[in-house]
């Protein structure tokens, strides 16, 4: 059984492009859906998102 919490990097990898844990979708011009976490995108953004 895989134990969560043993590695922050591995835990965050579980959030990448995961529709279960996402709170936003980005749809490309060719209709590819990318799932994201707003809080992670805001924290990593050059300009912080306010809303």
TrEMBL record:
It comes from the Eukaryota. This is 4418_t:CDS:1. It comes from Diversispora eburnea.
């Amino acid at each position: 059984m895989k134990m969560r919490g043993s590695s922050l990097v591995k835990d965050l990898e579980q959030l990448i492009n995961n529709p279960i844990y996402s709170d936003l979708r980005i749809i490309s011009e060719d209709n590819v859906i990318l799932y994201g976490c707003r809080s992670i995108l805001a924290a990593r953004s050059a300009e912080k998102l306010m809303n």
